[in-house]
Design brief:
five-stranded antiparallel β-sheet; about 30% helix; about 20% strand; 4 helices; Alpha-Beta Plaits; 5 strands; alpha+beta
């Protein structure tokens, strides 16, 4: 059902590194808004949690938009393409079953950006979390259901 992961999904010249923080973006096939359905979005969020419980990646921040997701994560023990492939593949199976559909769910690849400097970490998280506001879905991030960040005190974030 899911094509095998390929390291070519990483940006040209990049090799995934354990303990590196990445900002991942993956888009649904033809930008179909599968995640407009809250339960479908929660099925994706469950896959982020499963990746963390399996010690593949630590989630730092994420947002699930109607047709894509952004995931700020620290890679723990496997290659980045394999981790993203696992999340995408398992999500596709679960959401397709829930929605009673079949066929391609995701665009074939994903975009990754390595966060190399500590000072870039929180701005990247802010960018991710503010996505629903920029898209005009809500006026305040608190009004959007499908996001999280490890910095939740509001003042330091």
């Amino acid at each position: 059902m899911c094509p095998s992961p390929r390291s070519r999904n990483l940006r040209l010249g990049r090799h995934s590194q354990t303990d590196q923080i990445y900002m991942i973006t993956a888009i649904t096939h033809d930008r179909q808004p599968f995640f407009s359905d809250l339960r479908a979005g929660r099925l994706l969020v469950h896959q982020f949690s499963k990746a963390q419980r399996a010690d593949l990646a630590d989630s730092l921040a994420w947002v699930v938009m109607p047709d894509h997701f952004h995931w700020l994560m620290q890679l723990n023990s496997r290659d980045l393409s394999a981790v993203v492939h696992r999340v995408k593949c398992q999500t596709a199976g679960k959401v397709n079953a829930y929605l009673g559909r079949s066929g391609q769910f995701w665009q074939r690849s994903f975009h990754d950006r390595a966060i190399r400097h500590e000072q870039d970490l929180r701005p990247a998280a802010r960018y991710i979390i503010a996505n629903p506001i920029r898209a005009g879905l809500v006026k305040r991030v608190q009004d959007y259901s499908l996001w999280d960040a490890i910095w939740l005190d509001g003042k330091s974030f």
